[in-house]
Design goal:
The protein is of the alpha+beta class and 666 residues long. It folds into three domains: 199 residues, Heat Shock Protein 90 (2-Layer Sandwich), CATH 3.30.565.10; 114 residues, Ribosomal Protein S5, domain 2 (2-Layer Sandwich); 209 residues, no CATH class. The protein has 20 helices and 26 strands. Helix 16 packs across helix 18. The termini are far apart. Bound molecules: adenosine-5'-diphosphate (ADP) and magnesium ion (MG). The site of magnesium ion has 5 residues, from helix 2. The site of adenosine-5'-diphosphate has 23 residues, from helix 2 and helix 3.
Length: 666
């Protein structure tokens, strides 16, 4: 027998945490969140296998911690196991960075508020520093992992198909979305091969965060729910589909928009999901093939009650008071049968021993019961329910004249209440759900009426054998819809509005003077723009998004008097050939002569055609066959984003192909 080399041991144990691109991203963004970041940028190249980079604006890593930051089992977050009882950070094992080092080449650039500049460290396979050099980044930390799994060919092989890669990308996006909803005040940008795939700005609350992910029409069908249990100190809050919502829009065939968080950790807790699905399937989703309601549930429990040490990625937790047990009744019965068998085959001596034990158990149980009853009588009974505020969703619903419906709130309260009581009494799960065939039929009829009233709406029939043709009807005609063209146009619009071209530092900065611009009118535009102080030494950069989103990093060079300021292009987008002053002029011209206020109004032509190309490229990455709900989703986005304005893709090809008119008498 041979002892495994240290490197092999590292590789084996690391492969438990770092199993995929998404697990690297998860560990890195949790570190960023632990560091108090309000802006996180995740960039992947070649699906993350060439490069994964997570940049944050958090507190940075202190110089004293740097030598061990990526060495396994070094953490700045806890100092003994007792701290686990009051855990408020995502990380605590000090394993992630070390594990990533053993499966990829890692660079860490960091700067704290106390540092004068940032430093980039190159790490070796065991997380020790190989070399370091000064760098130009601002406060925060950037972790770059290159050539992931280069030493694990089998794992790489797993991702050899394009389908697997795209699935992985989607997983990363879903993960970022779930953190995005959980942390409304954190900005998140997700870039793959230099194209922005998803992003979210800082927003005031969960509602707006959810709105940006789910869209206004889905959110119009959701309501906020709060429940607090004094006794067990469990706090539930979130958004669920309204009782009489349009359940076609509030459910999916997968749980990808069923967000559950326990103490701020996104988790995949089967039993909670099952319980919620069960409730919704009985109540509302009978007519729908999609059985996963869209919802956001945030559960907060005293930290001592949760054990997150169940799986390496902490995505499953063990609740000490497992208040949502799967099916205790059957397992209890099974256990009884097994016990009876065991009893029959036991010897007299063993039986005596068990009887003795049982007696002691009973005594202890009686004592604990007595104490619990005493305590209970001391707790004042309070109704933990909170009243729903009249929220924007509510007014939205009013506007759309949705019928006033019974809120889900009392039912959910009762549901969770019954769960709690069950735990207290006999550990038997009884969930009563008011349900009748009559009401279901009534609802169905109502729904049908609504459908008829809205015949103007587009109605999806089904897809033909070709992936790019879906049969659609409107009030007056039957058409084919090409979803890829719609997606392309949507992507293009989004990129045009939001995409930020990255600016790379120029070797020779370009000084912007009157002679460069043939006059002072453009300099005056620059003069009026907001500046931001980025460094302690007083250098100012223009932070106007119309410049920065178009890849211009412009520094103010103070002159003798205010009228003699100069500006200097210090950094510029490098993804476009021959990009430069002419393009800057185009932007300034749009601002000066066309009063362009938004980013999309002042994109230079070169940027527009680059973004067109990106939109086309991204939409080609969509799967061949899109499920029906995606198409519905797309149609609603199309209506929402374009109205009747745009009816074609970036090449001007139409979304719809007219087939025939619907006969008047049908
Ligand atoms: P853990 O998060 O469990 O402590 P990690 O290996 O993920 O372990 O990180 C090790 C240490 O490196 C952390 O305890 C923290 O001090 C530091 N660190 C890692 N990432 C960041 C970051 N983005 N910002 C600030 N500090 C970080
Ligand atoms: Mg960590």
């Amino acid at each position: 027998m041979k002892q495994l080399s240290a490197a092999t041991v590292r590789l084996l144990s690391s492969s438990q945490i770092i199993t995929s691109v998404v697990s690297v991203v998860k560990e890195l963004i949790e570190n960023s969140l632990d560091a108090g970041a309000t802006s996180i940028e995740v960039k992947l190249e070649n699906y993350g296998f060439d490069k994964i980079e997570v940049r944050d604006n958090g507190e940075g890593i202190k110089a004293v911690d740097v030598p061990v930051m990526a060495v396994k089992y070094y953490t700045s977050k806890i100092s003994s196991h007792e701290d686990l009882e009051n855990l408020t950070t995502y990380g605590f094992r000090g394993e992630a960075l070390g594990s990533i080092c053993s499966v990829a080449e890692v660079l860490i650039t960091t700067r704290t508020a106390a540092d004068d500049f940032s430093t980039q460290y190159v790490l070796d396979g065991s997380g020790h520093i190989l070399s370091q050099k000064p760098s130009h980044l601002g406060q925060g930390t950037t972790v770059t992992a290159l050539r992931l799994f280069k030493n694990l060919p089998v794992r790489k092989q797993f991702y050899s198909t394009a389908k697997k890669c795209k699935e992985e990308l989607k997983k990363v996006q879903d993960l970022l979305i779930s953190y995005g909803i959980l942390k409304p005040d954190t900005r998140i940008v997700f870039v793959h091969n230099k194209a922005v795939i998803w992003q979210k700005s800082r927003v005031p609350d969960h509602r707006v965060a959810l709105m940006s992910v789910l869209g206004t029409s889905v959110m119009g069908n959701m309501e906020s729910v709060q429940h607090h249990c004094e006794e067990s100190q469990i706090h539930l809050s979130g958004f669920f589909p309204k009782h009489e919502a349009d359940h076609n829009s509030t459910s999916l065939s997968t749980p990808e928009r069923s967000f559950i968080f326990i103490n701020s950790r996104p988790i995949h807790q089967k039993d909670i999901l099952k319980l919620i699905r069960h409730y919704y399937n009985l109540k509302c989703l009978k007519e729908s093939t999609r059985s996963y309601p869209i919802f956001f549930l945030k559960i907060d429990i005293p930290t001592a009650e949760v054990d997150i040490n169940l799986t390496p990625d902490k995505s499953q937790v063990l609740l000490q008071n497992k208040f949502l047990t799967e099916n205790p009744k059957t397992s209890l019965e099974d256990a009884t049968v097994q016990l009876e068998e065991l009893w029959k085959t036991s010897s007299e001596e063993e039986k005596l021993k068990y009887e003795e034990k049982a007696k002691k158990d009973l005594e202890r149980y009686n004592y604990q019961m007595k104490k619990a009853i005493e305590q209970e009588s001391q707790i004042p009974l309070k109704d933990g329910r909170k009243k729903m505020k009249p929220t924007s969703t509510w007014s939205l619903a009013q506007k759309h004249k949705l019928k006033a419906t019974l809120s889900n709130q009392p039912k959910l309260d009762d549901l969770f209440q019954s769960q709690n009581e069950k735990r207290k009494s006999e550990n038997i799960k009884i969930v009563e759900i008011p349900f009748s065939m009559e009401s279901l039929k009534l609802n169905f009829k109502k729904q049908k009426q609504v459908d008829l009233e809205e015949t103007d709406e587009l109605c999806l029939i089904h897809n033909l054998k070709f992936p790019d043709a879906w049969l659609i009807t409107s009030k007056t005609e039957v058409m084919l819809l090409n979803p890829y063209r719609v997606e392309e146009a949507l992507l293009f619009k989004r990129l045009l509005e939001n995409h930020k071209l990255p600016a790379e530092p120029l070797e020779k900065p370009i000084l912007l003077t009157e002679s460069v611009f043939n006059g002072s009118h453009y300099l005056e535009v620059l003069h009026k723009m907001m500046t931001v102080d980025q460094r302690c030494n007083g250098t100012n950069y223009l932070s106007d998004p119309r410049l920065t989103a178009n890849g211009f990093k412009i520094k103010l060079k103070p002159g003798v008097s205010i009228t003699e300021h100069y500006w200097e292009i210090e950094g510029m987008a490098t993804c476009l050939p021959f990009y430069g002053v002419m393009d800057l002029k185009e932007i300034l011209n749009a601002i000066l002569n066309k009063n362009a206020k938004e980013i999309y109004e002042c994109r230079p032509r070169k940027v527009i055609s680059y973004l067109e190309g990106e939109a086309v490229r991204l939409s080609r990455q969509l799967p061949m066959y899109l499920p029906k709900e995606d198409i519905r989703d797309l149609i609603s986005k199309m209506k929402h984003q374009f109205g009747n304005e745009i009816k074609g893709c970036v090449h001007g090809r139409p979304f719809f192909h007219h087939l025939t008119h619907v006969p008047e008498t049908l």
